Amino acid sequence: MTDKSRNDGAQNAAILLKVAQTMAKLGVAPFPRNYELFYEALSGHNAELTRDVAALGSQPAQNRIEQIGIRYHLTGFAAVAADTIRADTVRSIAAMSGALNNGIARKEAFAALLRGFIDRLETDPVAGMSEFADDAARLRDAVAVFEREERAFATSMNETVALLGGLRSDIEVMRKASMRDPITGLANRIAFSAKLSALYDDGNAAGPAALALVTIEGLRDLGESHGAAVAEKALKKLAPVFRKSIKKNDFVARIGTDEFAFVFHDVLAENAEAIAQRIRASVEGVQIALPNRTFTAQTLSLSTGIAMALTASGSVDLFTQAELARGAVRSSGRPGVLVFSAAIGGRTKKTYAPHAA
């Protein structure tokens, strides 16, 4: 294990310890989704979320925690949001069904009144005018009530339809949010897992494709030295660079703090390597402004491991190969690009360092 890996592990452990201590102090249940929420709050990625969590105070009710998690579309709260939407949908449909049943009953009662009035006219032609007037008045009142109830039912139906439409919108927002990284707006690890699996839908590679696993070298140090907000700004600056560097049918996702994954379609190893080199060069050209240093900026670089879909036995094997290639680059101490090969342990494949670009 390299010193950098040990430092990264120590940093992650320190953050998780701080989250656990804060939750214990506030009396928050140790659910995985709560850890996610407090991690986001303590990391300072979203100032508004941090304020909302701070406002919870000690011994916060779980439903208040879940309201915040759902409001900010955190992945861990997707199941809670889905349960809430499902419950709201059941209530709405039940209310609509009840209103419909009541409406049918009212219509049947009104129809019975009409039939009775018609029968009276047909079977009792000598009925007095006062009796006829009384029946007509009752019918008139019934019509008025029926009209009011029909209008109320129509209003209720429209409100229910609008509510169901809103629930559908909420579901779509939740679905998109659960597949997106909140900082970069790129796909997240969940979306990446689905993409990776899709490369081997029938057990075989769908076509010539490459997986590139990337570590942004210098990003963790940037965050440690200048704060999480600076690292977040760097990520937001790099996200459009990544988008512009790939074809329309290619794919990029943020899968870790400083880790990204690219899927290049319809490429050979040489093409994938060239694309990764261009992306690395683009990243190295981005200037990251440092706080309180007007004339000083920092640059970042990439360590990239590439594996080819056609030479892997499946999605897990493909990921493992790309990870091994990236690990070989990082162990060299120089950012670069490496395509996996059977002889990777012997370093027979050329590693492209920054000066060789």
Task: Give an account of the 3D structure.
By secondary structure, the chain is α+β, with helices and mostly antiparallel strands. The chain has 3 domains: 3-72, no CATH class; 79-178; 189-356, Reverse transcriptase/Diguanylate cyclase domain (Alpha-Beta Plaits), CATH 3.30.70.270. Helices cover 61% and strands 11% of the residues. The protein has 11 helices and 7 strands. It has helices spanning 3-26, 32-43, 47-54, 62-71, 78-123, 129-178, 189-198, 219-226, 228-244, 269-284, 315-331, and strands at residues 209-217, 251-254, 259-265, 288-290, 293-298, 301-308, 337-339. The strands form 2 sheets. It has a 5-stranded mixed β-sheet with strand order 2-3-1-6-7, with helices on both faces. A two-stranded antiparallel ribbon has the order 4-5. Strand 2 (251-254) and strand 3 (259-265) form a beta hairpin. The radius of gyration is 32 Å and the shape is elongated.
- How many strand elements? 7
The CATH topology of the largest domain, please? Alpha-Beta Plaits
pLDDT averaged over residues = 80
Helix content: 55-70%
Total DSSP helices: 11
How many domain regions? 3
The oligomeric state is: single chain
Low-confidence stretches: 348-357
- Strands side by side in the biggest sheet: 2-3-1-6-7
CATH architecture of the largest domain: 2-Layer Sandwich
Rg over CA atoms, rounded to whole Å, is 32 Å
| Largest beta-sheet details | 5 strands, mixed
What's the CATH H-level superfamily name of the largest domain?
Reverse transcriptase/Diguanylate cyclase domain
